[in-house]
Amino acid sequence: MHVFLTGASGYIGSSVLRALVAHGHDVTAIVRSDEKAQVVRDAGGRAFVEDVTDTEVVERLAHEADAVVHTASAKDVDAAFVRTVLDALTGTPKPFVHTGGIFTFGNSTDISEQSPIDPPAMTSWRGANEAVVRASDVRTTIVAPGIVYGRGAGIPAMFVGDGEHEVRLVGDGSQRWATVHVDDLGELYVLALERAEQDGYVLVATGDNPTVREIAEAGAHGSPIVAESVDASRERLGTAYADALLMHQECSGAHARSAYGWNPTRPSLLEDLADGSYVR
């Protein structure tokens, strides 16, 4: 399958690119620089140095491809991109896999695809664009990952210590995070693409929902761990970001397993932090 991919040089997108190539798909990616284009080529994709906000380019590549995967989701990108891709794919069997996020569902100890929407301010912009995707007749799927980790990067890297400097919690660290390894996430995108059915949301989380304190304890490597007040976290991280990270979210990812045959195999976040890719 010839896939038009955005965000191919990013954290999630590069994993999706690797997974697509490994499964025999031909990938064309938009990137913003020659350096990023070379990264895509080295991974086995075809790259064009263009701007994802250029609707003429997006329309042409969507027409030329057999499917579209959008991982470069952003507030200033999605409205025009989604509209252009849906217009290009309407009336065809070509699937469109869009990227959302678990933050959309707010605080919950059992998040599923049927849970009510309650996003924090930081991601509230996603709702209108996702509604357009879900209302379309195109074969669309919105992939909504939990906290993504792996390869020494992602949000959990903020809790990696050096044995000397403080590792600060977000709040008191009692909140739980739904988690997924970036390479297991990449495999789910391929499954969604190949399934090519209209399926609203698919939440991508392994069922490991550690507390923030547990995450810090795994990653501190001898550094002192310091709790802080909500106000202190907001001052340090910014109110919108802190409020998102302060949410308590647990998710099993049951639909991804049962409907897509997804089988996550990578180490858990705590394992990866303790003696995996985050060890410096």
Main attributes of the structure:
280 residues, alpha/beta, Rossmann fold, seven-stranded parallel sheet, 11 helices, 13 strands, 19% strand
Write the layout of secondary structure elements.
Layout: E1 2-6, H1 11-22, E2 26-31, H2 34-42, E3 46-49, H3 55-64, E4 67-70, H4 78-89, E5 95-99, E6 108-111, H5 126-135, E7 139-145, E8 147-149, E9 167-168, E10 179-181, H6 182-195, E11 201-204, H7 212-219, E12 225-226, H8 230-237, H9 239-245, E13 249-251, H10 254-260, H11 269-275
Parallel strand pairs: 1-2, 1-4, 2-3, 4-5, 5-7, 6-13, 7-11, 8-10, 9-12
Helix pairs in contact: 1-6, 3-4, 4-5, 7-11, 8-9
Number of strands: 13
Q: Oligomeric status of the shown chains?
A: single chain
CA-based gyration radius: 19 Å
Distance between the termini: 39 Å
Largest sheet: spatial strand order: 3-2-1-4-5-7-11
Strand/helix succession: EHEHEHEHEEHEEEEHEHEHHEHH
Give the % helix: 25-40%
Known CATH architecture of the domain at 2-145 and 180-205 and 252-264:
3-Layer(aba) Sandwich
Describe the fold and architecture.
With 280 residues, this protein is of the alpha/beta class. It has a domain at 2-145 and 180-205 and 252-264: 3-Layer(aba) Sandwich (Rossmann fold), CATH 3.40.50.720. Helices cover 37% and strands 19% of the residues. The protein has eleven helices and 13 strands. The protein has helices spanning 11-22, 34-42, 55-64, 78-89, 126-135, 182-195, 212-219, 230-237, 239-245, 254-260, 269-275; strands at 2-6, 26-31, 46-49, 67-70, 95-99, 108-111, 139-145, 147-149, 167-168, 179-181, 201-204, 225-226, 249-251. A seven-stranded parallel sheet has the order 3-2-1-4-5-7-11, with helices on both faces. The protein has a two-stranded parallel sheet with strand order 6-13. It has a two-stranded parallel ribbon with strand order 8-10. Helix 4 links the parallel strand 4 and strand 5. Helix 1 (11-22) crosses helix 6 and helix 8 (230-237) packs across helix 9. The protein is globular. The mean pLDDT is 97.
